[in-house]
What we know:
Blueprint: H1 2-23, H2 29-38, E1 43-47, H3 48-59, H4 61-67, H5 74-86, E2 96-102, E3 108-112, E4 121-123, H6 127-156, H7 163-175, H8 184-197, H9 199-205, H10 209-235, H11 239-243, H12 250-270
Antiparallel strand pairs: 1-2, 2-3, 3-4
Amino acid sequence: MRDLIFCAGMTVFFLLSVCFLTREGRPSVSEEKKLTDRYPWSSIYISYIPLNDMTNALNSDDNFNKLVKLPPGEEVLRKFKGFLNQIKEQRMSEAVAFLQLNLVTGKAGYKKLSDRDGVIHVVPWEREEVEGIAEFSDRSLNRLLDYEKTHNAIASGVKEMTLTKAWKTSEGLIADPHIPPEKIAPLMKSVRQLIDQRPDEWKELKKQKNLFDKINKFKIDYDTSLQQIQERIGKEEGLEDLLNRRVTLPGDLKKVGDLDREWNEMIIKIAPLPEKSEPRTTQPPRPLHNLIDPKGPSVVPKQGHRKE
Length: 308
């Protein structure tokens, strides 16, 4: 009788363990339901720009090492990262227009900008992988939207966005692993501009010595970095001309890209981080073109420098 009870108990334990292991790293049932509630067509559609942002975040070692500690875990994120790098385009016409994650069927697919038909390219992921990637993508999309809202509020100088709020909000965004490294420079450019736009607030901020010292150090470091990059532009023949027109030749694209990387690395080093955060290493992937003088015209034009 005791043996029978023992065997029954072990069977129940085994079944519960299997159920737990098969769910580990996957969204909970309630989380899956919340996702379907938020997406009326029961699919998440991720377009070109956020796909590019997710690629850059996952390709940053600092960001990736933090993201794998969150659901859906390292195995699924490595698979997603591999897919994103595989579909990375050489020409804009080859870019992926959107990735679809179907929350009902557990299937995924994508369409390219150059596709002429209405048939989706199927991605051979298992349901559990699609669910995990959907959870990560939903979280990333919301964090990226938070970044855009904050950046726009700082850049437009809305009254509610004080210098103190801009600084502390920027700290949180910079520490967020969902935000790719190359988004740091344009954010901090806007913070630097806001300092010049708020002389009265800047004067009042001096009463908060610790905070003022941090922001003032950033201000000095930013201006020094900007002067260094402008001197580099002035010394290299033809570089300033490249920055003021649309470039398409591979050699010109490389020069502009190298300059962008250099600028991003400078700003990442001086950007604020919450006190408990670890220092970031400088490895911004596929930088955007954001060398803008807060006191003058753009150093790099607003349009992209991508082959067409």
